[in-house]
Each structure stands twice: as structure tokens, then as C-alpha cells.
Amino acid sequence: MIKARCCSQATRARKSTHLMKLTVGRGHRAATTVARRLAHVPAAAAGRLRVDDKLKAFVDDELLPGTGVAPSKFWDGLSSILEDMAPRNRALLDRRDELQAQLDAWHRANPGTPDPTAYAALLESSGYLAPAAPPFEVCSQHVDPELALVAGPQLVCPVDNARFIVNAANARWGSLLDAIYGTDVLPGDRAGAYKPERGAAAFGVAHSLLDESFPLEGEATWSDVTALSVAMRDGGAASLQLSLASGGEASLRDGAQFVGFLPGVPTARSVLLGKNGLHVELQVDRSHRIGATHAAGIKDVQVESALSAICDMEDSACTVDAADKIVAYGNWLGLMRGELSVPMSKGGKEVLREMNGDRTWTSAAGPGSVTLPGRALLLCRNVGLHMYTDAVMLGSEEVPEGIVDAMVTAAAAMHDLQGNSRVTNSKTGSVYIVKPKMHGPEEGAFTAELFSRVEGELGLPLHTLKVGVMDEERRTSLNLRQMMAATKERLFFINTGFLDRTGDEIHTSMEAGPMMLKADLKGAPWYSNYEESNVDCGVALKLVGKGQIGKGMWAAPDDMAKMVRDKGAQLAAGASTAWVPSPTAATLHALHYHATSVKEVQGGMAARAAEIASRASSQAAGLMTIPLLPAGGKSLSADAIQRDLDNNAQGLLGYVVRWVGQGVGCSKVPDFDNVQLMEDRATLRISSQHIANWLHHGGVRREPLLEMGYVDDKCGTLP
User: Fold this and answer.
1) How does pLDDT run across 636-673, given as a tens digit for each residue?
2) Which end of the chain is more exposed for a tag (fewer CB within 10 A), N or C?
3) What φ, ψ does residue 545 adopt, rounded to 5°?
4) Taking a C-beta distance cutoff of 8 angstroms, is the pair 457, 512 a contact?
5) Nearest Cα to Cα of residue 318 among 697, 712, 663
6) Whole-structure pTM value
7) Does 381 qualify as catalytic in the annotation?
8) Catalytic choice (680, 681, 685, 701)
């Protein structure tokens, strides 16, 4: 059994300096400085490498046993990869700086909104725009159905927090009644002890949702149901019979939605329903305190929720040194072995929270059973090319942290691939690595080659390691087709994200002029074209059926009512998954996938291939439209300017307090309207870039930026 690790208070106390360095400056070097932490790293010899002694002990004694990979093979392989690819990693970062310098110089010479023709010519001549890729289609194979075939929510969680990540792994199923009762989806007071009247109202909402997803014949509704029974037919098939308060009976309008059951006397203990590849379980127990209050004895409505979960080593994690990385790596290893557990106190008792097993029902279709995963399919987000670490040194040089991440992530997943895990993660023999902050197809090709090298050193079949491309950098958005071509054998998702992508939008065009108010950036032409182009590329290049088209995070975790109202639009736009900040949000967002058949939406888009192709050039033009303030912001009031600056500073400071003081890399921070927003390291990026841009173009801000208030939210102060 692998139990949770955590970083020490001493480690957390060092982080304020490093995090502040991360927020300053504009190029990748500023982000890299977070890795330069210790003048001397206690190191153990590992071939040509110098490795932090505790990290080496973790790899040798915990990570590798059971994989068939000897420590010498691992370290020699890592050394060989670093000798070859670390200089090329650095060259790619230098190329970023070179292109940025050209853009800065051009904007200084041509301030304001650029002439579209001249600007496009600059991007093309500089190499910012890559040559068109030859015709191709995504050809990834052995991708699990949670990514390739079934649309559903995707949870993102810091892997260095064991309690959070075990909860995320178990978020495949969630209680709809709890999600309704415990959030603003149901108005009213939800504090304190259980309120039977609120519980009854939660059932009312659940009944309405069941009516929408699983309608009954005739005029019957789920609120009329008083018993759930299963009738067996010849050949072993079963039918669902529902007793009504009127004394009559009803059936599902679509009998095929009845998937499975657990028999009971006199009624079924569990009924499994399905729609659009997702499932809902009605649990029946009249002796339960909740079931006793329901006419049909339903004690809970369990919804298949987070089909996949990203175990994050990047923006939402809190890892700055070898000790922190061991925590993150150790938790990922525990997940891949199915053994990660967290001791907790619940109801005054000590309990051990573990990873859930699979769930099995008797099949309604005939003899046999239906087994569904009890856990989300787990993906791992490694760090980007710009991050360096001194936990491993090549001679006297720090090495790219992402290369180390790739080796450790893959080695840990070998326990799952080889059947050494208590529970199975990938049923198709794949390892899913999300790669963030790549700038253009050259970096995509570099990542694909890195994965090939890792596979070779660890003895894995070619293309075992799959890549999820975060479309969050401007150069990637403008060259997304070429990026997909560079990763076509490994690609399992393309995903948009507002915070990082907007931060890079500001950074890239820093010298052009002052940017719009943050709230207005989503209404600018670049953003709508960014979101639309991402979906169009995924559909046109045949990612559908082989991977996901993803949309970004719902950033207001306490505003679930608004999420239920609004987030379904991402599916109508063609997304097959969208990010959520919590298991509860995953349960509520899953209802959108019942209401919208993503398969039909994407199929309709594919049938309009000519239309998709015809709008590619206009999308590119929209993506190149810089979101500058009209008239340099002269029409903005001082109050509007100050409010935007205050909220930027609030997000930065609120996040830093928890990051440093509590070791939490992702947390809720209230804005000045007291709306709780989910903030992670991407917050630092967009907020710091926005502030820097306005300061750089000083005419916008007529008063000093010194009055940055921090709303007290009881999370303490910086140590």
C-alpha cells in the first residue's frame, strides 16, 4: 500500500522567492528561474549524471522494482537522452526568444493595430508561421474509449496532493443528490445539519433531470414512481417495470436505456441506465435514512461523471525542488499501482481512502454481466520545455525538467501496463502525457521524438506514450494543423485554455500597445476564432474517434448553477470534453453530455467539411487580430482601470499566499466582487502579463499602482 506523501513546511517556506521570480519578466528565462533553487544539491553518481540522492533512491528502490528495468538502464538511458536532447531543448527556447525579439522590434516601429498584410508577411518571413503540412490524418491507435469514443467531463487535479488526487481518481462516479443539495443548483440555505425539506427538493430536481435523460412512456414522470422492479424474459433478458402512485405501471420510453441491475427482494437494489455512452445508477434501499424518505426507496442517484482526470505536475502543482518532485512522482506511482491511499478522519473515525474498484451489474440484455470502471482514466501532465531542474544535473548544468518527467511518468505507468496494478488504468496499453506550453510544430516534433527515445530506453512498444497537446500558446494556435501533423501517431487530445492562451496573447504583442480589459478579451475576434479553429482542426484532421477535442476550465467552483446553465455550450460547439475543477462539478457537467449527443454534433460538422475548410483563412486572420484597447484606452474611466488592476493583483496575491504558506498549487481566491475563482499558476501568467502591459504603456494608468488590496479569505499571510 502506497500512502500519501507531502512536502515539508521548510520546503514551502522557500517558495515565496521562487514564485515571485516566476511572475517577473516576459521571456522563458523568467519561468526557468524557479528551478534555480539550491547552490549545492546532495547528489549520487548515476552514470554521467549527478542526481539528488533522495530522488535516486526513490527511482531505484520504489519506482523501478517490478518493471524489469534496472536502475543502471534507467539512468544510462536518461543520460543518453539528455546528452542529445538537452541542447536542442535550449535551442528551441532560444528560438522563442529570437522570434519574440523580432516581434517586439516590429511593434515598436509600427505601434498600434498593425496592417494585416504587413503583419502576416512578418509572421511568415520570420518563420513564426510554419509552412503548410502535407495532407494527413491523425492516426493514433490503442486509445482508451474514455478519450476516443465517449464524450464526458475531464477533471484536473494537482498530483502532489494525495487526498485531492485520490478523490479525482474516484470521481468516475458521483452522487447527483449530493451535488444538487450541496450547491447553489438548488437555491436556499444548505449550511448545517441535513434538512429533510431541502433533501426532498433535491429529489425534485433529480426527478426532472431523469425525466429529461430517461423519459417514461406516456405522461408518467419519475416523481410518480413508487417501486422499481425487474422482469426476466426468455433468453435471460430483463425489462424494467416502474410502479406508479396512481396504481398503474410505466416503462422507459426507450427500453434500450435499461443497461443492468442488481436483483433484490421485492425490488431491484440497483438499476443502471445509459445514454450517449454514459451511465446513471439508481440505488434503492428503503431502510436507508434517505431511501426511507423517497416513494420508490431511492437512496441515491449515482452519475458517471469524470471519465478522465489529469494528474497535474504543472500549473496546479506545488513542486519546486527534488523533495517536491518525489512527492508528485510517488503519488503518480501509487496511482499506477492502484495502491495510493490517504488516512482520513470521518465522523470521528479514522478511515483509509483508497482507489475504488470496478462496478458490476447483471446485464439487462441477457446472460452475463456489465462491468464499468470505478475510476477515471488517469492522464499525467508533465511540465513544459521552459522548466529546468537541479534535481538532476548534466555536468554543471541543470536539465530540462520535462525530460525527467517523461522518463519517470512512463516508468511508473509500466506497473499498469504490465499488470502489476491492483486496478487497471489503461485497458489498451497506452500512457497518456499532457504536454503544456509548446510553441509551434518544432516543439511538437521534439516531444514526439522524446517519447520515442523514452520508449526505446524503457523497452516499451513504439507509440505507447500518447501526447495531449495544450493549444495554449499563440504560435501553436496559428500552426495547429502543423502541430497535429508532428504528433499525429501519438495525439489523444487538443485542448483550449483561456488563461495561458490569453497570457501568451498579451506577451507576444506586448509592444503593440495596451490590451483590452481582461473581461473584454473573451469577446475579441482572436478568442472566438481560437476556439472555433481548434474544433475545426480536430474534426477536419480526423481526431474524432481517436482522441478528444477539449475545452477549458470552469473557473468559478462555487457557482455551479451558472455552470449548469452555460457550460453545455462547449459541447454544442463540438467539444468532446471540457475541464471541471471538482468531482461535484464533474457530476453536474456530466448532465450536459446526456442532453447533447457530441457524436451527432461532430458528425454534422464532419459532413460540412467544405464549410470548415472555407473558413480556415478567416480564422487565421482573426487569430492575428491583436486585442488592443480602442484609442489606447483613453475612453476608459480611472475606476474601470483601477478595478481591473485590483482584481489582477488580488488573484496573484491570493494564490501566492496558499502556494507558499500551505503548499497548495490550486485554490479558490475571491475577486473584488467576492466571487470565488479557481486560480493556479496560469493565473500568475495572465494577471502579471496584463499588469505589465498596462504599466509598460504608462499613458493608460494615470495613478501609481501601489494600492493593491488583498481580500482576507482566512488563508493566512506570507511566511
Assistant:
1) 888 888 888 888 888 888 888 877 777 778 878 888 78
2) N
3) 90, -10
4) no
5) 663
6) 0.93
7) yes
8) 680
